[in-house]
Amino acid sequence: MNISILGGGHGGYAAAADLSEAGHQVRLWRRDAAALQDVVDSGSIVLKDVRGARAVPIALATADMGAALSGAELIVVPSPATAQADIAAAMAPHLVDGQVVFLPPGTLGSLVMSRIVRAAGNPADVAWAETGTLPYLARKHGAREVNITIRAVHLPTGVYPARHSGRALDVIRGAYPAVHTCGDALSGALMNAGPIIHPPLMVMNAAPLQHFDTWDIHTEGTQPAVRAVTDRLDLERVAVREALGYAAPHYPLADHYDNDRWMYGDAHKKLQKSGDWREHIDLHHHRYITEDTELGLALLVSVAAWAGVEAPIAAGMLAIVGGFLGRDLRQGPRTLESLGLAGLTRQQMQQRLHDGEWA
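Predicted structure:
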């Protein structure tokens, strides 16, 4: 399959190497041409995992969006939600009917990006999909080297507009067999694990994060009190899903810690053992705040209020982060209010997510 990977982060390099090694024709796009040059010069990415390290050839590495998207059946955007608007604007002149865009995860980016493409004047009938996590726990170890600690075994995925679900999921499964349907894009957004696992780790580890040069929030930072808050926060997410009629499995985050039924299987011990998550984290600028809290957690709080579900942990966590950032996060850009969806009834929301806004 012809696949485009958009983004030069951990997930982008992991996807480019992994899918190339699986036999797909992969084109990797990164806006920073200088940072991409080592991959361009070598024509490969060094992939490391349990099988060791090897150089995996990449069909094309480019800073030219048109060249990256031309002929692509599947477009994977494993970039932070904070980058989605800029990427959508760059994609807009090049998308064509029938292409599938996969956001792992999305934070309702499927709706946001589709709007940007339409507003740019491109009427292409594109399917947008989003899932609950990156297909990989991965970290880059150099300019063209990426280490994959574990691959996802379950990828619950929602599609926008949902009328394209069958076709979109068939295409995505050609690259990621672990993908399965979870309904529409809002269901996909409510599978996002980042807004559940990361805000409590950031808030409850704030002092050591600011004191030490590096800190492993998944080892020293994951203590019983933190786990207790995370579990309660996740119960709120599941309650919102159930109130909206979304079916199980909800992939409770407790499974990430306690057994092998979560999206990555039995991953937590492997994540800790890798040492790749011992890092410097800036409480104001790290994506666990800018993406998972300011966007993802704010979306959860907004949807909970719209659905009439009590979510005190989510709301309190959002307020605390707003406290140290110095602003109110309840009206962030991914809330239903900011997206112009808060006034819809549940039936209207379902119809909008099924048909799309330009059906």
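Summary: The chain has a mean pLDDT of 95.
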